[in-house]
Amino acid sequence: MAYEHIVYEVADGIATCTLSRPEFLNAYTPRMGIELRDAMYCAAADDAVRAIVLTGAGRGFCAGADMKLLSAFSGAGGATASAVGDLPELEHAAPAGPIRPDFRTEFSYLLSIPKPVIAGVNGPAAGVGFVLALFSDIRLAGQKARMGAIFSRRGLVAEYGVSWVLPRLVGLANASDILFSGRLVDADEALRMGLVSRVLPQQGFAEQVHAYASDIVKLSSPRSIRVMKRQLYDDQLGGLAASVEVATREMHESLGSEDFREGVAHFLEKRPPRFSGR
């Protein structure tokens, strides 16, 4: 697929997916969504990729849905083929193995990607852009980042599973505040809420996000991350006993893995790890 609304690059073990409509603050389109999903599946299948950075071109992360599209929808009383246009088919398949239906939806599929997805929120992340950030594993914000749902200010609702994921990140009261008010929170407030993990200087932001991802690539076992990511999200839908049972089984299996042997060896030999992901 020739990507038009994103840029996909791989270097040094990191796949970078850049939402690329900078003249519109990377406003979201159906084509952008399909291209991004295809790129994420491509990165998931690529053994050379060990971490994924999702960010935006120019001054914004993603300012929400393209207002021209929303205007067409409101005038037509709903989505129309002419408003959306012709859309490409996915070229890359979803990751192999059992995936819960919960993690197959339009945005929650990001939780099924078996590699860390790091949102580099370089500027405004609103509406659908906010949803993309929420379904990333880790959010790093630039000092000029502003984040919020804005759905209430468009006469819409908590879309795409936001009402499931947002309270898990910031608590029910903060989630209610963000959703009901439709306001945007700045980077410092987002950090206090736990909405983002770090606030980074705007100067050199992209390089700092990639440095964070690079540490994961160089120092962490891909196998460990793959298993732990599945544990984290499956456990949001299960109980403690099931979590312990899975953890016990996975721990026994990890003791026989190449990455465990390498994890011990590099520590004892005082050298950087060379994890295989197996």
CATH homologous superfamily classification of the largest domain? 2-enoyl-CoA Hydratase, Chain A, domain 1
Q: Spatial order of the strands in the main sheet?
A: 1-2-3-4-6-9
The overall pLDDT, averaged over residues, is 93
Helix content: 40-55%
Order of helices and strands: EEHEHHEEHEEHHEHEHHHH
The biggest sheet, with number of strands, parallel, antiparallel or mixed sense and barrel status, is:
6 strands, mixed
Rounded Rg: 19 Å
Count of the separate structural domains: 2
Number of strands: 9
Shape: globular
For the record, the CATH class of the largest domain is: Alpha Beta
Q: Which structural class is indicated by helix and strand composition?
A: alpha/beta
CATH architecture of the largest domain: Alpha-Beta Complex
Task: Quickly count the helices.
Answer: 11
Through-space gap between termini: 30 Å
